[in-house]
Amino acid sequence: MVGREVGVSMTSTGTEASAAGWDEARLSEQFDATIAKDQRIEPRDWMPDGYRRTLIRQIAQHAHSEIIGMQPEGDWITRAPSLRRKAILFAKVQDEAGHGLYLYSAAETLGADRAELTDALIEGRQKYSSIFNYPTPTFADVGVIGWFVDGAAICNQVPLCRCSYGPYARAMVRVCKEESFHQRQGYELLLTMMRGTDGQRAMVQDAVDRWWWPSLMMFGPPDDDSPNSARSMAWKIKRHSNDELRQRFVDMTVPQAEKLGVTLPDPELSWNEERGHHDFGTPDWSELQRVISGDGPRNVERVSRRRAAHEEGAWVREAATAHAAKQAARTQETARTQKTEGAAA
Amino acid sequence: MTQEWPLYEVFVRGKRGLNHVHVGSLHAADDAMALTHARDLYTRRNEGVSIWVVRSEHIAASTRDEKDPFFAPSADKVYRHPTFYDIPDDVPHI
Ligand SMILES: [Fe+2]
Ligand SMILES: [Fe+2]
After folding, report:
1. Contact, A142 vs A189, CB < 8 A?
2. What are phi and psi of B62, to 5 degrees?
3. 3-state class (DSSP) for residue A11
4. Which residues contact A139 (CB under 8 A, 6 or more apart)?
5. Cβ–Cβ < 8 Å for A208, A262
6. I need a labelling partner for A274 at 20 to 30 A (CA). Which of A53, A211, B20, B42 fits?
7. How far is A18 from chain B (nearest CA, A)?
């Protein structure tokens, strides 16, 4: 990791602070007090190494998910059934690219290096959300992704708007504003298909059946199997546990499924009057493990597609760099000639 | 050999009458590209009427180092605030 010497994004490291004669205990106290007061930590503040590392890992993983997340839906841009749907899908996928970039920008304020993050993704050293390793064989998948996957992302991201790290929280505010469009266009697409033919209705139900459980897995392993959660909660990076967020998603989605007229594929799903929540079945956690560790239906394809895009774009990046250097030299040259002419006159 | 594009900080004026506000950063090969990237990235929904971009390395910033009381000069001058002055209640418009 390279701590870049840049203005706003510059990070102040532990070494810099001790050079100023501050002992770690005092700095750590100051950090804890800021968190306790529910104030934000900003890039140039001292922060524990663990906090920085945890955030870089989480934000990078989040950024990678947005970028890889363009692929399953992007597959349908050329085959969207109407110009209206194509334009919408284009805008949606472009937003996801934007989300990835907001997040990479936030990771860079912590001293992460952008090129290294890209390398970590295409070399498989950093992960992205398991959900994007599933295929999108029908156009109904585009609708269900908007409804479920963006819906689940909203559940996860709304609390992150109050995350203790300022740049991450601000990126999430921006992202959340855009997610609502994503979810609604998906649901509207499905509503339209449900008003269509039997074949279209069956297509929607089939997509719901395939995406429901993987969507529940997006919230991560159950709480008693989520070792780092407590620390992230103490640091106020995370505000709710995986199971809480999963419950919130189920409660939010059930009435939407009823309105749409589809069945969620869980025989155990039922309203629990006492708890005031829906009871639901247990996802197949071994499947999540398998997909996370690289053995999902599309893992290899997703990463190699990202690698190809990066490598095929290399000449563009190089050409732009060369062009910028040439322009800068030319501007300098003109300035010099004008100065000499001015002196001569 | 690929040299990484430099980092730029982006400032957007939301609408006429407001200041430019820092919104984030991006990489670009030069100033012109930074502006178009900033437009595509930070103003996809009419979020701005004007954009500034500046190379991150050109920004000088204060640090939060409480040993150096950088902001102390502003802390002990209560007389800079209107509430410091006692004016009788019956004096109008003040
Ligand atoms: Fe997103
Ligand atoms: Fe989204």
Report:
1. yes
2. -75, 160
3. coil
4. A76, A79, A80, A81, A203
5. yes
6. A211
7. 11
What 8-state DSSP symbol labels residue A148? I
pLDDT > 90? residue A19: no
pLDDT tens for residues B23-52? 999 999 999 999 999 999 999 999 999 999
Query: Over the stretch A202-248, which tens digit does the pLDDT of each residue have?
Result: 999 999 999 999 999 999 999 998 888 889 999 999 999 999 999 99
Backbone angles phi, psi at B83, to 5 degrees: -70, -10
Residue A337 burial (CB count, 10 A): 10
- CA of A50 relative to ligand 2 center, distance in Å: 29
pLDDT value at position A3?
40
Helix A49-68 crosses helix A299-312 at what angle (to 10 degrees)?
90
Statement: residue A344 has pLDDT above 80? no
What whole-number percentage of chain B has pLDDT above 90?
Answer: 67
Helices and strands: H and E segment counts in chain A:
15, 2
Q: State both tokens at A116.
A: 């290294």
Structure tokens at A6: 């840049």
CA-based angle B42:A95:A317, to the nearest 5?
70
Question: In a mutagenesis test of the B interface, which of A101, A315, A332 is the best target, namely the one with the most B β-carbons within 10 Å?
Answer: A101
> What ipTM did this prediction achieve?
0.87
